[in-house]
Amino acid sequence: MPTELPKDNQASENLPTNYAVTDPDVALMLQVREGNAAAFEELMRRYQNRLIAVLEHLVPGAQQAEDLAQEVFMRVYRARETYQPEAKFSTWLFTIANNVANNAIRKLSNRKEVHLQATPSGSVSIRPLENMAKEASGLMPARVFARNEEAEMIAAAIQSLNERQRMAVLLSKFEHMSYIDIASTMGLSSQAVKSLLSRARSKLRELLMPYMQNGYSGSPNSEELEDDSESS
Amino acid sequence: MNQRFDNSIDEQPGAEADDSLLVAYLDGELSDVEMLQLEDRLTGDAELCKRLHGLQKSWDLLDQLPVKPVNDSFTRSTIEMIIQQEFKQTKSRWQLMTAWPVRMAIAFTLFLAAALISYIVARHQQLGPQRELIKNLAFLEKADLYTYVPSIEFLQKLNDHGALPEKWLRDAEQIEEDDIVEVTDNVELSPATRLSHMSDEQRNELRIRKDRFEQLSPIEQIRRRQLHDELLMHPQSERLFTVAEEFERWLRSIDVAERTTLLTLENVDKQLEFVQRIRAEQESKFFGLAGATALPKQDVGPFSDWVEEFVRQRSERFLNQTNPRLRQNFSRASKTLQPYLIFLAFSRATPEDQLLDDPALENMLNVLSLEAKEILDLQEDGEARRKLALAWISNACRAKIHPPLTDQDLFNYLKTLPAESQHRYDDMNPSQWRRELERAYYRDYQMN
Hints:
Distance between the termini of chain A: 33 Å
Shape of chain B: elongated
Oligomer: heterodimer
Strand content of chain A: under 5%
Order of helices and strands of chain B: HHHHHHHHHHHHHHHHHHHHHHHHH
C-alpha cells in the first residue's frame, strides 16, 4: 500500500504549530509560568476529572488515582518555570500522567501490593473478569447486570488489557487523541500505537461480545466468545 | 482525529491485519484512498463488516463507564499540598544553608554586605546634594550651548564653512616654531572628580544651570537632551562641541534683535547665510577699527576677496616649509580660516618684499579704488607703500580669524586700564560704552 498523506496535512507538517495560539490551555499554562496562580487553578478544574478518569483505570482504587492526579498537578506546577509550549497541553499533561502512573505501578508490583478488589469508596472497582464471570454464572441473579454491573464488566475488560494497551485505549477513547499524540504521550512510535490499539480493541471486542449479544456470556473464554460471535 | 496514519507498512497477516485496518478506519487514521479501498471491501465482505461492527460496538460500550466528578475539595487540597510542598522546599533549602560551613560563609558574606552598605550610605550622605549634579554633570556643563543651536546639521555647516572664528585663533597668529601650543588630549576625569575640582562659584553656576534647565518646558528639555546625546555619539563630536561653544560665544557678540531674527529663520541654510552676513559686517568693522590707516569703506569687500586668493596661494607654500608640529597646530583651524592664520604666523618672520613682491602689489592695486590708491601714493616711498599694503592685508587676515568681542572680553580689557580711564567709561550709556571700549581695544591691539 503506498504511503499517502493528505495534501493539507503535508503542508501543515512543514509549519511549526504555535500552540500558544491554537491551544487555550497552553495559553493558560504560559500564564502559570508568569506566576498567575488563578490560571493554574483553572487548568486544574479543566483537567482534574479527565485525569482521574484515566488514572482510575491504570491504578487500583479511586483514592490512589486522586493521589496520582495530585502528584501530576504538582509536577506540572513545579515545571512551570521551564515550561515550553512544544505540544498541546493535554499531550504534555498525560505524558506526565503516564510517567507517574508507570512509576506507581512499578512500585506496587515491587511491593506485591496490587489490590484488585473493589474499594469501599463505591467507585468503579477493578476486578478480574474471571471473577465477574463466575459471579454471573448463576451465583448472582439477573439484576447483577444492572447498570453498575455493566460498568464493572467493561472496567474489568479494560483491566484485562496490558498497561500500555490500556493507556493507549484510554487516551484514544476519553481524550480523543490521535495516534501521533498518543505516541508522543507514551514515548512510542505511531506504528506501535496503531498496533497497540488494534490488539486492544480486538481483545475488548472478544471480551465484550457475549455481553453485546445476550447481555451475558457464561464464559470469559475467548475461543468461546469467538465461536459465539461467529454463530450469531 | 484528523491525523491520517500510514498503513502501508502493515505486515500483520489475515484477520489481525484486517482488524488493524478496521481500527484505523474507525479512528479516522486512514487516508482517503485507503478509506475508499476498505469501504469497497466492506460492501462485498459480510464477515469483515461484522468484525467492524463488533469493534465499533465494543468501543461504544466504553461510554457506559461512569465518570464521577471529583469534588471541590480535591482542587483545594491539591493547591494546599502544592503550597506546603513549596514551603517545605524553601525551608529545606534554608536548612541546607544553615549547615555550619555554610553558616560561616553566610556570616562572612553578611559582614561584607554590611561593610558595603555602610560605605554606600556614607558616600550617599557625603555626596547627597551633589548627587544630581554628578549624575547630570556632562550635560549640565554643556546645557547652555544648546539654547540657540537648532540642530547638529547647523553646527556641521558652521564648521564646514568656517563661518565662525575660534577663540584660540586670536593668539595663534603669534605662534612660532619654538613657541608651539601643544595639542594635548584631555584626560577624561569622572564627573565626581571633576565636580570636586570645581570652585564653589563654579558649582553654584552648575546649580543655576540645572534650575534653569528644569524650568524649561518638557519638550525643550527633551530636545536639548537629545541634541546632547546625538553630539556625544557624533563621529566629529569634539569638533562640533567646539563649534557649539564658539557659536554660543559669538551669539553674545550680537544684539538681541539679531539673535531673535536668527532664531526665527526657518531653515539651516538661511540661518547659516544670516550668520555669514553678520560675520562679514563684524569683519568689516574690525577692519575699519583696527586698520592703521583705514582702507576706504567701499574697498573692504573687493580687497577681502583679493586677500583671500592672495593668502591661499602663499599659505600652501608656507605650510610646506613648516615642521610637522607647527603644521599640526595650524590644522586645528577650519580649512576656510587656515590660510589667514598661516599667513599671519609667517608674515612676522618673512621680509616684506618677499611677502608682497612688486607683481603682487601691482595686482592688488588693480582691485582698489582711486581713493585707496591715493592713500598709498601719499606714502613716502615704495617701501612705505608696501608696508601699508601689508598692514591692510594683515588686518584683513586678523578680521577673519579674530572672534568678535563679547561684553566679557571688554570687561576684562577694561580691568587692564588705569582707574581714571575706567571711571570715564562708567559714565557712558551701554552702546556708547561698548563702541568706545571696542575702539580702544583695537587701537591698543594694533599698537601691540
